[in-house]
Amino acid sequence: MRCPRGILISSLHGTLQFLAREEGTVWWHAHSDWTRASVHGAIVILPAVGTTFPFPKLDEDEVIVIASWYKGDLQARIDEAMENDENLPHSDAYTINGQPGDLCPCSNEANQVLGSYYMAARHFSSENVAVGDFDHANVTAILEYNGNYTHLTSPVFPSSLPMYYNFAAYQNFANRIRSLATPEYAVHVPLDNEITTRMFITTSMNSLCCEDSSSGCETKQISASVNNISWDNPSTHILQTYYRNISGVYSADFPDYPPSFYNFTEESYSIDTVLTVQGRKVKVLNYNESVEIVFQGTNVLDGSVNHPMHLHGYSFYVVGYGFGIYDNATDPKGFNLIDPPEVTTFGVPKNGWLAIRFTANNSGVWFWHCYMDRHLTWGMEAAFIVKNGDTNETSIRKPPTDMPLCTIPLHSGLKDFPEIITTKKGDYL
Question: DSSP character for 264?
Fold first, then answer.
């Protein structure tokens, strides 16, 4: 699934407008703190009139959404962890279409008539094998075929479901992702001589130094960074400040390279690579620029994992990825420019690198970040500003006249609405 591009809130009633450039099933979700854990869904974009999907006609079509589930008041847990500089929550279970399956005691499917086959999923962990405090729940749903046949006494659990640390299974799947690269579904990957902006961006776990005038670095706070900059959320939206030409909220100097080069995947590291700084630095791109980004994973604080990097507003081509430190002399020789995957999210391999390319033909302010909520909260993100083109069609749309103002502060869970908990307990708890 992929996120639809260019969503614009256009009324107090929640109407959304966006231009659907990709057909298929895309994912929509909220993006305020961790609300996407429960506020999300699927949008099915059909082929253009007179055309079909690039596969045989299906007998049936079902939308399946796999998501994370958390116990208790998630926002309160996040607030407490951030206030006390503690580890942020891991999910407590996974769900398929809102249910964790009959291997979990809270599922409402446990007493239903059994079908034939389980569909199942579990967490893939790319962390150090000594790290075991992740979600170990197996999410299941039952796939039942229609027709006249004898039901099994119990559904068959998949015997080939990979275990949590099975990196080979993940890599084998990732290696199979390709574009169709047909005349109907052509690729438009920028070629070497068309690239106008090249960036090399490190993804790291870090510490923020809380300075004291008398004793220097007194305490360290968990953080994450890109090119050693940990994102600091502003109180005013970057899009609003850019559109209204308001100064002082962000700076347009996100660096194309990290401040220093070192052995990014080495197990030992210096204090200079551990400490990061907060900032609101964005990268400004001209309309229609061809961009290449190489994301380099690091092992700072023994924190190297697979980082799923996500870009708002664009699909991008994954032209290459590998392990170790990226070599700009030899690795580009192996880039796939024929049928590279076109996606909005792809993983930077643990202790490895990821190379992507895209054309900046969607003007606006576009957030990009690691898709792990924990890393996003700690600051592994930044933004692109893509300037307007020469026409109205290639420029930022004006905000709708009924655009709601973000003036209502968010609070954790339902703590400010005790009457809901009291009168609707059976519905909400």
Answer: T
Tokens of 355: 């190379």
Parallel, antiparallel or unpaired: strands 345-348 and 352-360: unpaired
CA distance 308 to 5: 18
Q: Which of 331, 329, 330 is nearest to 349 (CA)?
A: 331
Given the structure tokens 């099915």, which residue do they identify?
44
Structure tokens at 68: 């994370």
| First-last CA distance in the chain | 30
Pairing label, strands 342-343, 316-323: antiparallel
Alpha-carbon span 266 to 299, nearest angstrom: 6
How would you class 251 by CB atoms within 10 Å of its CB: exposed for 0-12, middle for 13-18, buried for 19 or more? exposed
Phi and psi at residue 21, to the nearest 5°: -95, -20
Q: Is the dihedral of CA 347, 349, 351, 356 positive or negative?
A: negative
The β-bridge relationship of strands 289-297 and 197-212 is parallel
* 3 state DSSP class of 53: coil
Per residue of the chain (429 residues), give pLDDT as tens. 444 444 544 444 556 667 777 888 888 888 777 888 888 888 888 888 888 888 888 888 888 888 888 888 888 888 888 888 888 888 888 888 888 887 776 655 544 444 577 889 999 988 888 788 888 888 988 887 777 777 766 787 888 899 999 999 999 999 999 999 999 999 999 999 999 999 999 999 999 876 554 555 555 688 999 999 999 999 888 999 999 999 999 999 999 999 999 999 998 788 888 999 999 999 999 999 999 999 999 999 988 999 999 999 999 999 999 999 999 999 999 999 999 999 999 999 999 999 999 999 999 999 999 999 999 999 999 999 999 999 999 999 888 777 666 554 444 333 333 333 333 333 322
The dihedral built from the CA positions of residue 27, 30, 36 and 41, taken in this order, carries a sign that is negative
The CA distance from 72 to 234, in Å, is 28
Q: Give which of 340, 339, 356 is closest to 348, Cα–Cα.
A: 356
